[in-house]
Amino acid sequence: MRIALTNNVSGWHSIASVISLLLIFVFIVVLAYFSTKFVAKYQSNIINRKSNIKIIESCRIGNNKFIAIIMIGKDYYAVALGKDEITFIDRLDADGLKLDTHETLDNDDISGTSSAAGKPNFKEILSQLKNKNSKDNDIK
Hints:
Elements: H1 2-50, E1 53-62, E2 65-72, E3 75-81, E4 86-92, H2 101-104, H3 107-110, H4 122-139
């Protein structure tokens, strides 16, 4: 009788050890994921703050060949990037480019109701959907 009780206790102890090891492993993986994200974001902010050169957009046109739009200071340029060479294509006019909202908005426009490109922002779309749903509910 005493041997059976000891085997049962050691079985539960083994299961508890495996579960605790799995929880520790998951915790370490999650901690590594978030610390990597934090470090990458921190380094990206430091590099972008100190840098006068930014890659705005790039497009692959072949094996190891790209066309990129870069911003140096306040000027935009198109360049061709190859495996061993970089070729200047042309200087671009900022008015003809479709830029992200963070590139085109000033600090005052971020809290506004529409973006600089005239497209509605998320707040406007959400309010339109709410109005549509309330009208649909009133009809029913």
